[in-house]
Amino acid sequence: MPRVLLIEDDTFIAKMISHVLTDVGYQVDHTADGEQGWAALIQSEGTYDLVVLDRQLPGMDGMMLLKMLKSDPKYSTIPVIMETGLTDRDDIKEGLSAGAHYYLTKPLDKTLLLTVVEAAVQQYQQLSTVKADSDDLALIFSAVEQLSIRFQTHDQAIKLAKALSRLYPDPNRVALGLHELMINAIEHGNLGISYDEKKAYLLEGTLAEEIEKRQTSSEWGGREARILVSRQADRITFKLEDQGSGFDWEPYLELQAERAFDPNGRGIAMARMSSFDTLEYRGKGNIVETVVLKVQD
């Protein structure tokens, strides 16, 4: 059962969120202020799958708690959904830049709440097993200089992101960014799902169905993405290429307030900010190259 920490001082909103989430199988622990929320995190020893955090709290406010959470390695990978009644662009950008995965504006929309909670928890759980596969895998990867790998599906992308992250001393840092870029190559590149289409499919709960339909179609099926990994003494380079027609990638390199309340659209910026030292798209946008510096064996 996924475990959610809800930090919200408004009793009515807290009851509504708890009811919506527990009805579909989440365990929800509730605290009413930032100090209690931080204490709950410490007591849990990092076992929460998600934090839902009100920005405006008495005492320690939501932004302060978010920054504390993201600066502590024990909790930094836990996704955070921030609730706010504020719509100022600078306030929204501050929260996104500090590490909030999603923003929800009050009054809360129940469909959007469930959509973003499910997306955040699913991704966190898929990538939370990065640390340990086997000593043999670690030994093999310690000797890798170059790899060229093809993939087509979500499942392949998840497994490859976890495996390839083992090349780096801090796998959790790289895994999320790799996963985001590889999923982007499948959905937006090879399958031609636009930003607005993905948003609609997520809200309708039909994204997985649409992906399966396109992967078996004559128009989209059979396309592959390729990732080339080069490992040198001071860096690892990941070069990812899909068979799509490209896209206007520049607006997605930064977190944009206009997309803050959408259930998608922040993966590239988060990868650029958190996972890699450099991230650059090439040409029409179907090739992206990232670098992780200062790799130590």
Q: How would you explain this protein's 3D organization?
A:
- This protein is of the alpha/beta class.
- It has two domains: 3-127, Rossmann fold; 135-293, Histidine kinase-like ATPase, C-terminal domain (Heat Shock Protein 90, 2-Layer Sandwich), CATH 3.30.565.
- It is 43% helix and 19% strand.
- It contains eleven helices and ten strands.
- The chain has helices at residues 11-23, 34-44, 62-71, 89-98, 110-127, 135-142, 154-164, 171-190, 195-204, 207-215, 267-274, and strands at residues 3-7, 27-31, 50-54, 80-84, 102-105, 146-151, 225-231, 235-241, 278-282, 287-293.
- The strands form two sheets. A five-stranded parallel sheet has the order 2-1-3-4-5, with helices on both faces. A five-stranded antiparallel sheet has the order 6-7-8-10-9, covered by helices on one side.
- β7 and β8 (235-241) form a beta hairpin.
- The longest helix is centred in the middle third of the chain and has 20 residues, at 171-190.
- It is globular, with a radius of gyration of 19 Å.
- The model has no long low-confidence stretch (mean pLDDT 88).
